[in-house]
Each structure stands twice: as structure tokens, then as C-alpha cells.
């Protein structure tokens, strides 16, 4: 009969830093899925809401800073026209991030790549659909700070993943 060394059967333990990152991802991506589903429901009405907003701000034409408002309205129009694909992207990307975090919780390296794909979708797709000009470009840069930081922090934990 073969003897099994108990020290070989000890499972790898999840490092605390990786555990904290995964929990934060569960919360953030879970809220992202809920937000994406809400936007999915509201997507058919996005253009109508934009037109109502445009009617309210129409009196601002010709005022100082009009170029800024034009830039904001152009970005808002692009977001309203692409509301459905943006909402679908938010749901898919956040589900990928959730899946990735679950796999990394189990110390599986495939989780990092799923998480990376989800975060890249959340950065690249809105830029390709809405554009990167004006205020929306600045907001997208600000919005990419946390995903890039998390990607770096997860990458630092790749040594713990199999």
C-alpha cells in the first residue's frame, strides 16, 4: 500500500492581498452587472431622454462656454445612440470580471486573463462607440484609473496562481 505524505496534500492558501482584491472585485463587478442590467432596461428610452435634455439646455446655445456644452452634448448623443451596445458591454464585461475573480479565488491563472479581458472591454468599447474627445475623453481616462490599478495589483499576484 502506498503512503501519502500529508504535507503534499496541503492545499495552497489564498494570500490576504489577493483575497481583498477578489472581494472588492465581487462587490464592484456585482454592482456593475446590476447597473448594466438597469441600463439595458433603459436603453430603448435613451434617445428620448437625450432629446428632453437637449430641449432643456437648448437655451444655453450662444452663451460663453458654448463649445464646451457642444462637446458635452455630442458625447451625450453618441452615448444615447449607443445605449444598448454600451449596456450589453457593461453586463458582459462585469460578468467576465466576476468569473475572473472567482477563478483567482480558486488560485486559477485563467481568472486573471478573464478579468483582464473584462476590464479591457470596459475601457475600449465605450471609447470606440462614444469617442474620446471633449469631456468624455477626460472622464474615460479618470474611469480607467481603477481598472488599470486593479490589473496591476492582480498581475503582482500572478505568482500565486496556477
Salient structural properties:
162 residues, 6 helices, elongated, 0% strand, mainly alpha
Which bin fits the share of residues in helices?
Answer: over 70%
Largest sheet: none
Order of helices and strands: HHHHHH
Mean pLDDT: 86
Low-confidence stretches: none
**Structural domain count:** 1
DSSP strand count: 0
The helix tally amounts to 6
Distance between the termini: 30 Å
Nearest-angstrom radius of gyration? 21 Å
Choose one word for the global shape.
elongated
Describe this structure in words.
- This protein has 162 residues and is mostly helical.
- It has one domain (15-56, 64-160).
- Helix content is 75%, strand content 0%.
- It contains six helices and no strands.
- α1 runs antiparallel to α4, α2 runs antiparallel to α3 and α4 packs antiparallel against α5 (110-130).
- The longest helix is centred in the N-terminal third of the chain and has 27 residues, at 16-42.
- The relative contact order is 0.15.
Short recap of the structure:
With 162 residues, this protein is mainly α. It is built from 6 helices and no strands.
List the SSEs and their pairings.
Elements (H helix, E strand, L loop, with lengths): L15 H27 L3 H12 L8 H16 L1 H23 L4 H21 L3 H23 L6
Helix pairs in contact: 1-4, 2-3, 4-5, 5-6
Amino acid at each position: 500500500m502506498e503512503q501519502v505524505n500529508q504535507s503534499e496534500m496541503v492545499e495552497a492558501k489564498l494570500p490576504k492581498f489577493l483575497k481583498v482584491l477578489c472581494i472588492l472585485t465581487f462587490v464592484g463587478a456585482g454592482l456593475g452587472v446590476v447597473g448594466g442590467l438597469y441600463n439595458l432596461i433603459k436603453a430603448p428610452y435613451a434617445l428620448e431622454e437625450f432629446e428632453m435634455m437637449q430641449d432643456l439646455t437648448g437655451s444655453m446655445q450662444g452663451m460663453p462656454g458654448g463649445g464646451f456644452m457642444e462637446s458635452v452634448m455630442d458625447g451625450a448623443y453618441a452615448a444615447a445612440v449607443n445605449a444598448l451596445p454600451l449596456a450589453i458591454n457593461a453586463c458582459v464585461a462585469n460578468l467576465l470580471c466576476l468569473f475572473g475573480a472567482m477563478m483567482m479565488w480558486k488560485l486559477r491563472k485563467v481568472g486573471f486573463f478573464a478579468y483582464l479581458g473584462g476590464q479591457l472591454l470596459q475601457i475600449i468599447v465605450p471609447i470606440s462607440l462614444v469617442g474620446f474627445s471633449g469631456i468624455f475623453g477626460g472622464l474615460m481616462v479618470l474611469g480607467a484609473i481603477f481598472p488599470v490599478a486593479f490589473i496591476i495589483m492582480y498581475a503582482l499576484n500572478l505568482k500565486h496562481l496556477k
